[in-house]
Specification:
By secondary structure, the chain is of the alpha+beta class. The protein folds into 2 domains: about 100 residues, Alpha-Beta Plaits, CATH 3.30.70; about 55 residues. Strands 1, 2, 3, 4 and 5 form a 5-stranded antiparallel β-sheet that branches. Helix 3 packs parallel to helix 4 and helix 4 packs antiparallel against helix 5. The N and C termini lie far apart (about 50 Å). The relative contact order is 0.14.
Length: about 160
């Protein structure tokens, strides 16, 4: 039985460390007419064009009224080049749910990919903390935190350079 092109791309990508997922997104607005175009933009322009996304396809539900707002959801199948690309999309788009479709068994990750993943996690955490702190701290305290972050960044660079030696 011959495989179609999508199946072949999927199998090849999974064999080289890719991940096939089903992602669920939801969105609310007081205006029902704006929901589907925004969700289409999320899938076709932002998600599909994200680094490491090989392909995505999905369906968007008709908006329904819930209390005083309208709500819609999308179910999107996404093939990622690697785990890092999946994690970055999760950080950037915050899906309501994720299913791993393939690989169906254990997933092996290279140490270099794990290090990159952990650095990304650290950066997102630092960015989020900086965002929150910039709105809570006094200007002087916030400047001190920024200096601490800069010093931490310099230390990280030195550690990376030392490891390369």
């Amino acid at each position: 039985m011959a495989k179609n092109e999508v199946d072949q791309v999927t199998d090849d990508t999974i064999k080289s460390g890719g991940v096939l997922t089903r992602m669920y997104f939801d969105m609310q607005s007081p205006n029902a007419e704006e929901l589907q175009p925004i969700m289409v933009d999320l899938v076709n322009n932002r998600l599909l064009k994200s680094q490491g996304v090989v392909y995505c396809s999905g369906s968007i539900e008709e908006p329904i009224k819930v209390s005083d707002v309208y709500s819609t959801s999308a179910t999107v199948t996404v093939l990622f080049k690697n785990l890092i690309s999946l994690v970055n999309v999760v950080f950037n788009f915050s899906p309501a749910g994720i299913e791993i479709l393939k690989p169906e068994k254990d997933f092996m990750i290279r140490i270099s990919e794990l290090q990159s993943l952990l650095i990304n996690l650290s950066q997102v955490s630092a960015d989020y903390s900086q965002y929150i702190l910039s709105r809570v701290l006094s200007k002087e305290d916030y400047q001190k935190v920024l200096l601490d972050i800069k010093n931490r960044e310099e230390l990280g660079k030195k550690l990376i350079d030392k490891k390369k030696e």
